[in-house]
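Retro notes
What went well: the complex prediction finally ran end to end.
Inputs used:
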Amino acid sequence: MTLAILNIDWQTLADGLALGAIYALMAVGIGLVFGVLRLVNFAYGQLVMAGAFALALASQWGWPVWAGIVLCFAVVLALSVAMEHLVFRPLRGHSPAVMLVATFAVAFLLQSIALLWFGSLGKIATSLASLNRPWTLSGVDIRKITIVAVIVAALCLLLLHLLLERTEVGLHMRAASMDFSTSRMLGVRANRVISFAVLISGALAAVVAVMLTVQTPLVTPDFALRDTIVVLAGVVVGGLNRPIPATLGGFTIGFATGVLGGALPTNQSQYLPTFVFVAVILVLLVRPRGLFDFSRSVERV
Amino acid sequence: MTLTVGNLDVRYGGVHAVRDLSFTVAPGEIVGLIGPNGAGKSSTLHAIMGLAPASGSVRLGDRELLGLRPEDVARSGIALVPEGRRIYAELTVEENLRLGLAGRRSRAAVDLDPVYELFPIVREFRARQAGALSGGQQQQLAIARALVAEPDVLLLDEPSLGLAPSVVDVVFAALEAIKGRGFAVLLVEQRAQRTVAASNRSHVLGGGALQLTLGPGDAGDTEKLVAAYLS
């Protein structure tokens, strides 16, 4: 095996940027729920998968694009709420291991349902395929989805930031992720905060579903599964329980995956996950609290 | 409204932490709960807040609070200044204060000025990260955070714990300032003498049960205090 000579061009960087933006949204979605429930939702990818199937069905039925997107949001949000009431709430307060295993179960359940309903060959979501056409900017071809993904992700993150920093429910969510039991003693309604986090997290999953189906129009039951694993690694690398480090972690690993995927010669791209996860392990050895967690313990007496 | 605790029992598994405890705290009163470690003081507060498995009754006015979730107790007019202050170090002082509004029942416009007047330090540092405050300042913030909820009852769990003696003075001065503003105050403390002096009544707990009730005049009576602790 010869050493790969990385030929990184502008297109590759742009693709990395787009994947980073999408992964950042997934990271925030996972991080928000982790913050209030201390639960790593492994089934997050299946929410995205369900949204993607909604889009595929809508395009199969010949629905207009907007109706497909509405259906995608409706399906993902309904599933999120169902997950919260049937799994998260009953298990609240159990050990993290129990909750993680429960979300594994939910993930496989949803995947199996998709397999039963839609088969392993999957369906194709075509309604937004025109976004795959390139724009040529000073000789560099950039797919429209690249630009759309970056703008949409930036907008979502900005809105989320305003919500967390400027509103009452945002303050309650931040406080609950720092110290849930004290928040409750102050009168912060636990169920309301959790429902809110789950809903926002679901909305982000729907946005991700729309953008991922543009990049990968073939929707199969394992859609977004690998992305979720990579994002989970990214979230851990960034720092799990703070939105900003989680976002940066998700973006970084998405960007690295995108750029490496484009830069590695085709015969070596099968090693891509290996490279990514070796990098994850190295980072965690050097900074176990996460790459972007700069908070120090500031307790004084 | 008066807080009425009646025949309260708290059991953690086999441990009988509070036994048949009854007392009342009326508006404008400070009632102390003192006693050695493990006497059942904090368990009593936890039972009132809905954080401990309890039987008996805890009423605010006519309303039974036992069985409510902690957030619903807080929203019924009981504000807790928790042990160890439990300030959100990464939030600003003002954000910490605003969290106290979660328990507020009134829908009228929020006015933080009365609390700022009581605790000028909180106003002065309101834009800072709360973690940067000293222990005494954090304790004042914790009390201020409880007061903005405009509660009927204020529960204080060991407010002087871990503070330097000069800072303890600040905390008791704050209690003095709160006194007479119509709150019913229940003060759990290790510092028996100061608590007895500051309170209308002080109940001495031992082994989870009420041993003795002292008035402010007993604060100087060291023999009586020592006897109460050894009983």
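What we learned: Confidence is low (pLDDT under 50) at residues 1-5, 296-301 of chain A.
What to try next: split runs per interface for comparison.
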